[in-house]
Amino acid sequence: MLSQQKHPRTELTISFEFFPPNTDEGAEKLAATARELALLKPKYFSVTYGAGGSTQARTLKAVLDLRAAGHAAAPHISCIGSTRASLRETLQQYKDSGIRHVVALRGDLPSGTASAGEFHYANELVAFIRAEFGSHFHIEIAAYPEYHPQARSALDDLKNFKRKADAGADSAITQYFYNADCYYHFIEQCEKMGVTIPIVPGIMPIGRFSQLARFSDACGAEIPRWIRKKLEGYGDDTDAIRAFGLDVVTRLCEDLLKAGAPGLHFYTMNQSALTTEIWKRLGL
Ligand code: FAD
Description:
By secondary structure, the protein is an alpha/beta fold. 46% of the residues lie in helices and 15% in strands.
């Protein structure tokens, strides 16, 4: 059992992540998806942000649209490739728009981009937000139970995570994973180091295998061999992939909640069907 993460079911933090749409049609579709997912009563929706501010305006617009429709929403913000002045301006815009919750990240520089800007790591962004905006924002940070792909070692990554939490984060959301043991181990390590913020597991529903394989290769999230083999074996049979994926991910969520995870953060890919089905099966 995860001692510090144990939360009663009624207090679970359930959240859903979107990416900002880039067309009017995408925006309408997202509004419909949010309406459907709002029926599940999440704590908030979050909206991703392109590194170097590439989707900055669209992220803010998507968050404001969600808020105007009556939903709680938190923008992501990344610091790599940015200056202090540009981040201050973005954060001020968030504050002026009534936003009090952000997901603070380093981000990844697009290949070929020369300058890292004035920030190198997310702990610097967290410290900057606290220094400039005090306790105005609830700050979420990213966690990697399978360790960040660029980490020099697992221990180094854990120390970096602690540094980022100690800089003033309120809670964390993990990269997705399909092997619950890595999450339990990560939490134990954090507790031993004195990191006490809630660390909510990130959940990636399984829809299309090729897409999942691509994401996983890019972000270093492991698809266990038995799951990869089964998914590969289904070929183009999307119904079979969906049915198997729902079983696997629902079981994962059940195990995590039973062990005391403080909530679940779903990477929805701007779709409601798989997340809704998992939520129903969990009896939340
Ligand atoms: P950091 O915490 O800075 O860590 C990055 C690497 O640097 C790690 O290997 C770490 O060990 C090392 N490190 C950290 N601090 C130090 C230090 N002080 N000295 C030396 N080494 C250090 N990306 C986007 O572009 N937009 C998004 O909206 C977005 N949303 C995300 C949401 C979640 C929940 C997650 C898990 C990831 C998200 N990402 C997003 C991806 C994220 O930006 C990348 O994984 C990025 O490579 C790392 O970001 P970070 O904030 O975890 O970085």
